[in-house]
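Q: Hi! First time doing this. I have a protein sequence and I read that you can turn it into a structure. Is that right? Here it is:
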Amino acid sequence: MPCPENSQLPPLNLPMWSKAPTCRDGKILCSVRKRFVKLEPEEWVRQHWLDFLVLHKGYPGGSISVEHRLVLNGMNRRADVLCHSPEGQPLLLLECKAPDVKLTQGALDQVWQYRLAMSPPPLVLVLSNGLHHQAFASQSPDGDPQVLHELPSFAEVRRMTADLP
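A: Yes, that's right. Below is the predicted 3D structure, encoded as structure tokens:
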């Protein structure tokens, strides 16, 4: 059944769903994990992004890892969404926040630290609360991130990584 209208889950600043998401007993069907997960505000944002990445930006669903495990300073962490190349190279790292969470420098520092914990680090970083989005690209592991005004498609990121030394 489609997800019920819920005042706690606002419309987001992303394209409309390609098809209505399936919800049941307070859970939403994750298109990548192929299982129902608790429908929290952050998950609402994540599921919108997964739909957007696959259907509008051409990222293959099979190349997307949700709640990707990583180790940062000896501690286990989970990155919300990590998109890989077919060869397994990290391309895009997305950190989702609930719509009522402001995108602060601390949130940006978090996604940057996650990026540095990966080898090689992903080229594109995205931080979003579903209403506001920030996207960055960095050509080197310790280089300064450059603001992106538009999120690159899967094909564009693949071309960008082909140009790296």
